[in-house]
Amino acid sequence: MGNVFYADIILPLSVGNLFTYRVSSPLSGRIERGSGVIVPFGKKSSYKGIVYRIYAEKPDLSVVKEIIDVIGTGPLVSEVQLDLWQWVSEYYQCALGDVMNATLPSCIISADDSLKYRIRTGSRLVLSRSYTEDELAVLLDSMQKTPARYRLLINYLDITSYEGGKNVPDVSLKMLREKAGISVSVIKKLTEAGIFRRFEKEESRFDGYAEALSPLKELSPLQQKAYKEITRQFADRDTVLLHGVTSSGKTEIYIHLIEKVLSQGKKVLYLLPEIALTTQIINRLRKCFGDLVGVYHSGLNDNEKAEVYERIRGRSALPEYRVLLGVRSSVFLPVENAGLVIVDEEHDSSYKQYDPAPRYNARDTAVMKAKMTGAKVLMGSATPSVESMYNARTGKYGYAFLGQRYGDIKMPEIILADSKEAYRKKTMISHFTPLLIESIDQALEDNEQVVLFRNRRGFAHFIICADCGWTPVCPNCSVNYTYHKNMNSLYCHYCGSTAPVPSRCDNCKSTNLKFKGFGTEKVEDEISILFPDARVRRMDYDSTRKKGSMERIISELEKKETDILIGTQMISKGLDIENLTVVGILNLDGMLFYPDFRAHERCYQMAAQVSGRAGRRNTRGKVIIQTSDPYHPVMKYILYNDYEGMYNKQIEEREEFNYPPFSRLIRIYIKHKDRAIVDEAASLLADGLRRKLKNRVLGPEYPPHTRIQNLYIKSILLKTEKTISYRYMKELIGKHVNSLRENRKYSSVRIYSDVDPQ
Ligand code: ADP
Ligand code: ZN
Ligand code: ZN
Fold first, then answer.
1. Cα–ligand 1 centroid distance for 209 (angstroms)
2. From the alpha carbon of 612, which atom of ligand 1 is closest?
3. Are 682 and 716 in contact (CB under 8 A)?
4. Does the chain have fewer CB atoms within 10 Å around its N or its C terminus?
5. CA-CA distance, 285 to 191, in Å (whole number)?
6. Which residue has the CA at smallest separation from atom 26 of ligand 1?
7. Number of C-beta neighbours around residue 267 at 10 A
8. Closest C-alpha among 175, 168, 132, 131 to residue 152
């Protein structure tokens, strides 16, 4: 290339895609695809971006600004990452900048002076020269009369296991001081005397794994069979679905596969749908693989995220991670040379990001990533999604089945408790059927633990005036306020706004206000009254906002310091508690009647997952499901643990009504603060698309909540053949949106697509 050439840059913006800059000759040697650069943009003089491509031809632009600087040496983002960004941006119809934002910890892209995150350093202490064994003995002897110095030396030798020899190990000063119980002045004296040397070194922001590693558990014959099946299928398939009932030992199989992949010198990406699940799994993985395991989730601060980013790609002075356990966004991290990607609980809708862009599904993105890198994908679930099961049935995925719980433990006994009947007979005790109360009683008497599942948080869903029907509604959203007793306020779950609890009706001034519906807070309140001696805890979004609070709740449960745990879907997955025998599902009906083609599937999955927490070790578990509709067809599948039946029914309906996996759905959202503008823009867009896509266009329609955060919402649903190219769809929609926006009236309407909505 000549002296002057050009680069297309990704900027962390949702608008546009690539921005062209000139590369001046002083920078030309340092720039490559994936490099981080600083560029001028708009009013801001410097912006951080990533080089997408470099070329020599002069672009057809009147003004081309120059790149200001290149950051660091070597690319910040790898080839595979860029390819994956490209795919995500096309398939999920978003800007490359959106994917960049989802990938790079913000301190890497927006720190002011340098792209580098702040490395943490810590003081280390080391003997200032090497000693022979005899010399060490002499040194120790010489310190006999100064006990503090002696303690320091002996502890140093103990921690480092140094017995003399060439390689003199160093040790964390803080750790040594704590262990030896000595003051800084002692250390100062010893360094002044030239015996020890003190220096600074990069230190991890995470606690290391201090215990000895445990050998892997031996697989049962059934697990071995599944393990062999998986490895056999990997010979000619990229993806295998491991369908194993709850507590069949899927995680144990993952651990064996991880060991195998590590022994081949490759890395592993292990995806989980929720942070709540990482707590227990991380402990299991660390026992086997120690500090080779890194964790990534939204609970980490930026510098911690950056440390994980640098350690997984081996660019840190700290030891490289070889296994990355993380939630959905970890799929974008640079786990190069991965041999295996595990997608645990693959059916879980949390793998899909709903807002903001990129609105991607991490499970499907993982499959694409693996394809690009040659890695294998193992999806695991006790209740596979209809789509993945269909892929297994049609041979696209391999399949392995584990039909029994580990250790010959029986599947839990499931009992449906008819709450409608109990209300009619007036036998309900607040929100609980007599059967559930009896079972909790029995469990507590036997010193066993109980989990109660309620799919709503807060205290009461809404407040209503018994005289005129008035209900407090969020002023920004068309949503009832939820009453939270702990905060003593009304709270909108959609925009986060709060309001004081009214003492009288806004409309008729009556004081006859009633609390309707119940959430986890209310359940906690009532259970504490009914079982005053039980230790009750609650786990939901509200009770786990503080850092470390989730870990504490789970650890208390593990240590049997909690008798009854109440929670939302956070507790429905993955929990493996030895002594938990009774699970109560309070009111499953709300989910059944949700207007969504996946409602029945979701209801089945939820019930099976929550039930799966019961009786995982010695005693057979018992699950009580309260429902007002025990004869609903889905209840039968749940009762008999009939995944097959549920799947067959679902796939039949999906085929008949042309839903996924038989079609691809794209939902286009249109939002604006003016209702009339939303109506018009949505109709124009739908009409335009209909000319091309005919009856594949459904709507526009209002969603159940027509206004959120001050914006009215309408949506258009596209139901297309899976054979229509996603590039074509992105272009087509983009074209129609642009032509709509040419009319100034609609230029400020927010429009975006949600591809494969969940
Ligand atoms: P799943 O992931 O299918 O829900 P887990 O892997 O959590 O199941 O296994 C359930 C329980 O059985 C765990 O406590 C696990 O430690 C134990 N377990 C599973 N397989 C074995 C094995 N091969 N040896 C010893 N314990 C096992
Ligand atoms: Zn009123
Ligand atoms: Zn609101």
1. 22
2. 4
3. yes
4. N
5. 40
6. 217
7. 24
8. 175
